[in-house]
Every structure is written in C-alpha cells, then in structure tokens.
Backbone:
C-alpha cells in the first residue's frame, strides 16, 4: 500500500508542477501543446518501443488484455443503452459518451500507474495498442460518418496506420517476438527519450487544468455523471468479475481491475474537439474521471494488491 501512495504522490506532484507552471505564466495559453506534441510524437513512441522490445510475448498476449478490452466494450454498451433511454444524445454524442465510459487513459496516466504501481509498463502498452488499432478507427469512422463522409472507415484506418505510437508499438512487439538484439548505440538515445515521456505528459496535463471550469449548468451533466460512474466504478467491477470467471491468478485479477479503473483517455477529447461534437461533455468526463479514479485505484490496491 505504501508503494501505491508513493506512486500517486509522484504522479500528482508532477501534475501539480504543471499546474503551477501555468498559474505563474511560465507556460501560457496553447504553449503547453508543444510539450504535449513532443511527448506524443517523440518521447512516448520511444518509451513504448523500449518497453515492448523487452517484454515477454506471453505478457503481451495475456488474458488481462482480453478481460480489459471486454470490460471496455461492455461499459460502452451500457452507456449506449442509457443514452437511448434517457439522454437522447445524437450518434456522435452517444459514440463519444460510450468512448468516455470504456476508453482508458493508458498513455498519460496509465503508463505512470503501470510503472509505479503495477511495476511493469508492459501491462498497459498492449492495451494502448489495442485501443489505437481497434477502437480508435471504429470511433473515428463513426464520427466521420456524421460529417457525411462515406469514406470514414478508410480515413480512420489511414490515421491509425500513421500514428507514431502505433508504429513504435508494432516495431517493439516485432522485436520482442523475433528476439532481435538491439545495439546500445541505438537504444541509448531511445531510452533517454522514453524516460522523458511520463514527466512531459503529466506536466502538460497539469497545465491544461489551469482555468478549466467543469460541470456548468446546461452542459448535459447527467451524461457526464453516467459516463464517469461507468468508467471508474462499473468497468472495474466488470473486469474483476470477468478475470475471476476466467480463473486468472490473484496478481492478474489485480492488474486487470486496476487497468479498468484508469480514467478516460485525454485523446477522446481530441476527437471531440476535432469533430466539434460533445466537447463539453467529454472534457468534463475526462476531468472528473482523472481525479475520481485515484481513490478507486487506491482502494483496489488495498483490497486486491
């Protein structure tokens, strides 16, 4: 339990440093996006390649990924049903709300939690790949269709194939499966860049919290609360039940449940902002789940860890 608290203190400390940097105008306005872009296009791909190339292929293809993926689909399905019955969201809003309920932040917060709490980033990296290769194209295809673009699926697949995180993850997976030795001369700078990924994304997230006002009246708060509850409470319960039903070991049950309790991924907001659909709902859900997930994960660690 002490390790969990230390991990959260480390994560929140860096987020707080980012917030203070924005508060005292060290970084202003959209300048934080430079840090986020460097992390996304350079440091995070380096980290994922470094992690996956040393991973046990058995861990990469473990039942934990199957359980967490199934839990995500079920949580998203529950939001879709609630939307049809109560919220009456349009197709784009329902899709983004369902994504908020099941698409975990396996990058910005998932990797720190995996490194400092689960003890191995290889548990989260494959889920990140599944989300980007399988879930994201489907989400983007639906959003493209709301623009009247009949080629939405092709556009989405093209975006996924050119994503640097996907490319780095696939290359790392191939190296791990084939067992190709990597020279230190090449891995030195890659490892150093990868080490910068987690601090940069946490700093950028902390900066983004400056000036944010969540849950304003008339912004569809019922949908936000439903997506938040599904993400941080229902999805972990589903993952725990599935992991137990499949006969996973205690540590695998702990890992699957913890991963399922991660907050909504920030790139869901990127999708909403890009397509100008349900931006406020997604922003508020990301904000709430980010903080609500921390005590939930601590509770999971106390009960199962």
Residues:
């Amino acid at each position: 339990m002490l390790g969990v608290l230390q991990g959260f203190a480390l994560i929140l400390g860096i987020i707080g440093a980012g917030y203070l940097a924005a508060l005292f105008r060290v970084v202003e306005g959209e300048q934080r996006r430079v840090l986020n872009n460097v992390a996304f296009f350079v440091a995070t791909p380096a980290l994922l390649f470094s992690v996956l190339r040393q991973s046990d292929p058995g861990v990469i293809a473990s039942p934990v990924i199957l359980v967490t993926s199934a839990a995500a689909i079920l949580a998203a399905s529950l939001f879709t049903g609630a939307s049809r019955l109560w919220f009456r969201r349009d197709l784009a809003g329902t899709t983004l709300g369902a994504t908020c309920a099941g698409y975990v932040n396996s990058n910005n917060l998932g990797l720190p939690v995996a490194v400092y709490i689960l003890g191995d980033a290889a548990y989260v990296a494959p889920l990140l790949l599944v989300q980007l290769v399988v879930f994201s194209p489907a989400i983007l295809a639906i959003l493209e269709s709301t623009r009247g673009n009949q080629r939405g699926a092709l556009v989405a697949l093209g975006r996924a194939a050119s994503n640097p995180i996907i490319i780095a993850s696939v290359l790392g997976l191939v190296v791990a499966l084939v067992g190709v030795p990597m020279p230190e001369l090449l891995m030195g700078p890659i490892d150093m860049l990868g080490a910068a990924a987690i601090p940069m994304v946490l700093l950028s997230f902390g900066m983004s919290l400056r000036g944010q006002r969540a849950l304003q009246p008339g912004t569809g708060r019922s949908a936000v609360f439903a997506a938040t509850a599904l993400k941080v409470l229902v999805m972990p319960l589903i993952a725990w039940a599935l992991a137990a039903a499949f006969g996973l070991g205690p540590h695998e049950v702990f890992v699957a449940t913890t991963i399922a309790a991660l907050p909504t991924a920030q790139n869901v907001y990127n999708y909403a902002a890009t397509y100008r659909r349900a931006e406020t709902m997604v922003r508020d859900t990301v904000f709430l789940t980010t903080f609500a997930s921390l005590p939930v994960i601590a509770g999971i660690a106390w009960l199962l860890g």
In short: The CA atoms of residues 99 and 117 lie 25 Å apart. The first helix runs from residue 2 to 23.
